[in-house]
Design a protein that fits this description.
The structure is a homohexamer. By secondary structure, chain A is α/β, with parallel strands linked by helices. The first copy, chain A, is about 35% helix and about 25% strand. Chain A has 9 helices and 12 strands. In chain A, the strands form 2 sheets. In chain A, strands 5-6-8-9-10-7 form a 6-stranded mixed β-sheet, sandwiched between helices. A 5-stranded mixed β-sheet of chain A has the order 1-4-3-2-11, sandwiched between helices.
């Protein structure tokens, strides 16, 4: 399949004009490789491991959620040189879909909402809001941990009843907080919980899962959807975060 | 003691001109209460609990690391109204020392460095760098967890040898990362570890403790130092962050 | 009456989207007090006298034209602390309508135009323009002085014939001057006449009344209109400006 | 005398590097006429009347406090065309000294301070501060009116004792207010008193004289000083501001 | 004819709202002279020679493509004083049409396109694109040189076939380059060819003629069109650029 | 020789802190290749031809005046991909010295001044000024053409006597013009002469040589100087600009 046709399909899935303004230059075709695509790989980040695996898989295009170069550069540092050597050497294209895929119907936030089991889902401050069966905060956090397959942190009152949930895949607590406060949201689910958000949460409870686990599922779903037009494979590469607690007893 | 004399003492401990430029308007006397100080309270944040306790303790001044109003306001929302009602009603002054106390000799970063046992400490990109006895990354993370009294996350290779440490109290990974990479730092200790920092860490390992536990010790030390001039008490109010892990077996 | 219903009524009178862009954050509910309103007070400025009188009158809401905090603040100076102590202590809401009420139909400029007796009134550079019965400049200035109940300054040629008038409540000479020059306006009526406006007036005459007297009438009218939904009182608090002229003989 | 030598003398009197930054482009030689100067004229503003009189006086240079073009222009409107036709036709130079003359020793503020009889004069927020013999506010305002030869407005408590005075020639209330509040100034003397300054004055009293009368004396003094090097004449052209008060009885 | 009616006609030819945003203040009536127009002159620049000739021709208005004052001024330097003395002394108006005439139908770019013989002309990145009879690059450059009456520089491969041409009157290579690359343009014709454009041209050839010769034809055409309403004359004043080449042999 | 030692030598020749502020990120090591340098190449631009030749020459580092990436990028277009493939594939470093080398003693401007034969050379608005033996403008332009080995354009009066010359390597007419006018410079030598500079030149004559020929000599000299520490070669790659003049007869 021609790269142009494939890009048309990718733009249907994640229309570029859905991207936030700050994503100018950060979405679309970032590096252009061979013109004919017989296999495609998807992943959250273009890490050297991911690029290497994509080439081993025989892919001519890698689609990631996070782009190769966040802040625009005038020079090529060693990490970037390493990634470019792999990409240019392997003649593999890199295509990035970020906030356009976050916001798209069936995109990153919708995949997360489906995993969590949100009902009556609607758009909400860069993410989604909806309802879950009534539960305690502990139970809801345990449910999140289970369906995402990772540990989860949570903050909130002991008597919190969770019913109305807002979620933002990636780092979105601050984005959703003010809206959550005025819309009687019980809990926000997002990543990278910061101290000032905890202090400013008011009556809103917070559940935080690692950034990777809130977004990677949507890249896996993307590979499944692309299989309709070209063989596609999802490459999993979660960061290895370990935890130690010297003060906790079993 | 007159409030003016006390402020002179506070400015010796945390000289205002050490503050970062973005802290303009965020340090110094934020709310002015009674002119005569017989007791002082210190804390990390001016939460309603902290203000209430300070008044119960009979303090006429509360010194916090984080200020009352981060983004300047034209109006008074409900949380701020609640805090102001307590402060103005109790005629208690609020004084804030932020990056000036971070940067000061004997300030927030130095207190953290002392707790960790850093040797040959020097200033380093908004924090401190120094050496610790050679250890594995696991052992170093466990040590951090123990001396700070909290859980710690860490990311790094299995064969990492920790010797040269950079630390930044509060949220400072991004601040220190580039410097750490070019200065052969083995590990950065800070708070609020984000996905993009993990992806861009290169060979630098990362240990993350909750924001509160990296900074609150310095407010406790401040109370001890102020006791020389006026009775002082530290008020502890850590955020209650809980954790659940559905996929881990004992 | 619920505060929410009252605010809906206030937004009908002075729709927020009529406000100039620089008024962002300076209009609407500035401080929130008790939820149930049985009496309302209006005034030009939230001076301590005005707030005190509003509380004495038993009002739960004070509506002013000028807001409490013009430039956003990070700290609470003594004057503001005094005002907030009164407002928060009295549990009285403060609501501000500024350029939205200036621009609204029946708002500040329209009330002034009606007082002056403008006919064929239309919108004009932040104010209103229209016609008055033909008169000399002296006679028109005397008329202004009489209907507003204050002294008036004026600048213009001896043979000026006043017929077409532009007016801007508050400080608006500079705003209206260029438009007045190209639209054959005979005289501008506004406040706070500055030297550079006098020098740049070309053939346009100028009549200046104190800021307070051009805007306060509209706050009085507001109280009258609000009486339809809840008892309302206007609190008058003009600044005491005195005048001395050592060189003028009676 | 060569124009170059005269400019050197003018720059001694009002050194260009004393000008505020916003005066970039607004001071110095604005229009260049004949190279030989046998007579000079000074005035506050380059009005057509002033330019015409200067030419009649046989001057080759006109020195004004306010410049010809405040906001930079791309085109020449009718008023400016009229002034330029006079200047270019008369081959008369225009030289402007603004904030550099305000700030200079013996400049605009110092001339005003001497007229008022300030003692122990020192620089103060764009103007001067000093002491006057103790008096009531009414008496001080009458004194200002008499020595400047114009009406004066004033605002302040009935029991104000005037001793410490701050003055700013031209429009300077806002500039001096905060400093006056923290330095226990009794009264500020300046021009163009605005409503928000009155509301924010705290305990500071305010005396306001028309802009022209606070600055023109310094242009008269300038003519006297220049006579030492070349014949010089001051051209007086005060704006004609009249006053009417329908509510006051004799 | 009244100046107002003439300006209406000029605004039909070059509608002001077609101007680029950076032309704010640089188009329209720049200096206003006599109100009655019996003759008009057009030229590319308001040089002293051009203004002098326009007055000799008895014109009351001069229309130029480049305005009198590019960067807004606070003062009148000697060159500008010279031009203004001529304009104000001759009571001749100056009217400027710049990017509005560039972009207008039948305007600067269209006149150039017609001269070059472009077919199927359409708007293209601040200029026009279209087709010419297939030729070599050398032949196309010679054609440009001949029809414009000036030397031309060109850069491109020896085997370039010219068919699709983009042109921008004045200095427009950078403006058109990116668009030309993605739209398979064979050659860009414009002025003031810079080194970085040559280096970044990819496969696009470049032909450069002096700025004057790409734009002056449109001012000549303007004079012809205006003759329908008032006698009009074009004044030609090309810059005298000479060339020397020590290394070339005949 | 280690790359670090070589860079130290390059920084002696062109100290980074001499660079203009806009060159942030555009000078120094742009792409890092092999750590050991046995041969170095210099050139004006990193064109594919230049990179290819440098690799053929066995160089591990290429030093250019113009950098690889002018505006910072988030993605890699085809031209850049081509250059990076060559650089990364050849493991050759790219080092850029731009305005720091322009301004350095013995740098780009000094090399040009020496070629022209300037005497009493001093720094002058981004370039150099000095004297040449008195000549006509024609003769001076012919001299420039001869010593630089390229055609030259010139603009100026027939009776111009050239004695005081200002020169700016690269594109510097606008930079030097105002200074040249007030310092009685007879002629400016630079590149990329634009129409507005010709119109605003006053009495200053202008000689323009192609950008490449004013700067490339300094890169040749650089190769000669570097030979002292490591074998070095200059790679010449002038743009092929051709000229046609249909209206000139032999």
């Amino acid at each position: 399949m021609k790269i142009g046709s494939l890009i048309s399909r990718l733009e249907e899935i994640a229309p570029p004009d859905l991207a936030e303004e700050f994503d100018d230059g950060r979405i679309g075709l970032i590096v252009k490789g061979a013109p004919e695509i017989t296999k495609i790989a998807t992943a959250l980040d273009p890490t050297p491991y991911v690029i290497g695996r994509a080439i081993e898989e025989g892919a001519q295009m890698l689609v990631t959620h996070h782009t190769l170069i966040w802040e625009p550069v005038n020079s090529i540092n060693e990490d970037l040189a390493h990634q470019l050597r792999l990409l240019l050497g392997g003649r593999i294209s890199l295509y990035s879909m970020h906030t356009n895929y976050d916001n798209a119907q069936g995109g990153v936030n919708d995949v997360l909402a489906r995993l969590i089991g949100l009902e009556g889902t609607e758009c909400f401050y860069g993410g989604r809001a909806g309802k879950v069966p009534e539960s305690t905060l502990e139970a809801f956090a345990a449910h999140v941990s289970m369906v995402l397959g990772c540990a989860a942190e949570y903050v909130g009152g002991n008597d919190t009843v969770v019913k109305r949930v807002a979620l933002v895949a990636g780092s979105g607590f601050r984005l959703a907080l003010e809206g959550a406060r005025v819309n009687n949201i019980d809990v926000i689910l997002s990543s990278e919980l910061k101290h000032d958000v905890i202090r400013g949460r008011g009556k809103v409870s917070l559940v935080s899962a690692p950034h990777y686990y809130t977004e990677a599922p949507a890249m896996k779903v993307l590979a499944e959807r692309l299989c309709e037009v070209v063989p596609a494979v999802f490459i999993d590469d979660p960061p290895k975060i370990r935890m130690v607690n010297a003060i906790e007893r079993p």
